[in-house]
Write a structure and sequence with these properties.
The chain is mainly α and 450 residues long. The protein is globular, with a radius of gyration of 23 Å. It starts with 31 loop residues before the first helix and ends with a helix. It contains 18 helices and no strands. The N terminus and C terminus are likely disordered.
């Protein structure tokens, strides 16, 4: 058997692994079931990308953003629940399997005209939210905390709104408005009830891993779009060169995201109780993931289209989403600097990504063919990735994240993420650490306040 997988649990009913007990910081692995669940979003992102078509209009973009936000929120709810309450309980496993079925039906209805599929989408998504509400109710009964009760209430209310919208004409403004309201109810609930979230924070290792896996899926969607676009053309240099440049753009975006410290706001929630910053970190991934999928649409269409007008449209769908992805990365970087009490205006990487975003947006105003566009997009992305990766602050933030995460696991978390505090921890001998932490329970913001 493989450690950490669903069939590896030998606990008595009602027991949880030591790493998932209240305040625990032991290792929590992503299970096979979670990977299976996340793979559904490969299909969902592909279906959403195809909704934009060859020449998307503003109305199409609005519907695409709404549907993408709903699909992303369904994933985020499942990932945060697993990180907060554990991924090895029967309630989580059976609930996730049921959500997996509903997500498959949601993915099936994403591409069609909402006039025909809007009601089916609403029913499938409504059931999905009800299932998530039942999971939250189970956590509330088991934990006896206020926060999961509030989540269950918002999820149940949103589920009812989604189900009620199935009675409205498919794709009508009334139905879309009700979807937006239901999504807003769920998204805003954690923000307004964050004071109650300290008792059980998401696992500092598991949630960043799930978030990273979704970014890999989104980046993989670009490769899918490029390969799909190449199928419509003969394999000549005119096709292979822009395809190669598109793949290099993916590599650049991958490095820009994964070469940085990715979990500092979550660690700050555990150490200093900065739950708001943790939510900003989580929510900040929505625009990045959205922009990456849209970049894939533009790159894929650029390879498949030979019509000059369509090529010009594809240019816009490469330039602006790429700029948006870089701006989203600026936000994530700034959040990490804020929680570690570092100056943002003097950070080289922020300025590099801002300039890169401006350069990417500037591509929309140039008269470029597909080869030129893709080569310039790759050049901007790779240069930015190189400059960020070689920024000394990037290295220091990564080291800080590693030290704090290790200390949380050992049960000797620092009281602050101030640079001088963490640097002192780095210099502390291993023997002193072992002596100082012997017999101490895991520490988080809730236990320190108590």
């Amino acid at each position: 058997m493989t450690a950490g997988q669903p069939d590896d649990v030998t606990l008595q009913e009602g027991q949880v692994p030591p790493s998932q007990e209240q305040g625990g910081h032991g290792e929590q692995k992503v299970t096979w079931l979670e990977l299976f669940y996340d793979l559904i979003f490969v299909v969902a992102f592909d279906q959403l990308a195809k909704r934009l078509g060859d020449a998307p209009q503003l109305a199409q973009l609005g519907v695409f953003t709404l549907l993408f936000g709903a699909v992303w929120w369904s994933w985020a709810s499942n990932a945060v629940y697993a990180s907060r309450y554990g991924n090895e309980s029967r309630a989580y496993r059976w609930g996730t399997l049921a959500q997996l079925v509903t997500m498959s039906m949601i993915a099936l209805t994403l591409r069609g005209d909402l006039v025909d599929t809007g009601r089916a989408f609403a029913l499938a998504f409504g059931v999905n939210r009800v299932l998530q509400a039942l999971q939250s109710l189970h956590a509330a009964r088991e934990e006896g905390e206020a926060f999961p009760w509030r989540l269950a209430g918002s999820q149940g209310l949103a589920g009812g709104m989604w189900l009620a919208s199935a009675a409205l004409p498919g794709g009508s403004s009334g139905q879309l408005g009700l979807w937006g309201a239901a999504l807003a109810v769920e998204v805003l609930t954690p923000v307004f009830t964050r004071a109650h979230a300290h008792a059980r924070l998401p696992h500092e290792g598991h949630l960043p891993e799930r978030v990273g896996l979704l970014q890999i899926i989104a980046l993989g969607a670009i490769v899918t779009e490029v390969v799909t676009g190449g199928r419509k053309q003969a394999l000549t240099w005119a096709t292979l060169v822009p395809a190669l440049a598109a793949i290099l753009t993916v590599v650049g975006l991958w490095r820009l995201y994964f070469d940085q410290a990715r979990a500092l706001p979550l660690l700050a929630a555990h150490v200093e109780g900065q739950v708001g910053r943790m939510l900003s970190w989580l929510y900040g991934h929505l625009p990045f993931t959205l922009a990456v999928v849209m970049v894939g649409v533009g790159l894929g269409h650029g390879i498949s289209d030979v019509d000059a007008k369509k090529d010009a449209v594809s240019q816009q769908w490469v330039a602006w989403p790429l700029a948006g992805a870089l701006i989203a990365l600026v936000g994530l970087r700034a959040n990490s600097l804020i929680v570690t009490h570092r100056a943002r205006l003097r950070d080289r990487s922020i300025w590099v990504m801002l300039v890169a975003a401006g350069a990417a947006a500037g591509l929309a105003a140039l008269d470029l063919d597909t080869v030129q566009l893709h080569l310039l997009a790759a050049g901007v992305t790779l240069l930015a990735a190189f400059l960020v990766a070689t920024d000394p602050v990037t290295t220091r933030l990564g080291r800080l994240e590693e030290v704090v995460a290790d200390r949380l696991e050992e049960g000797s978390a620092p009281d602050s993420l101030e640079p001088e505090v963490v640097e002192a921890l780095q210099d502390e001998p291993d023997a002193a650490r072992a002596e100082g932490t012997s017999g101490n329970p895991p520490t988080n913001s809730a236990t320190r306040r108590s």
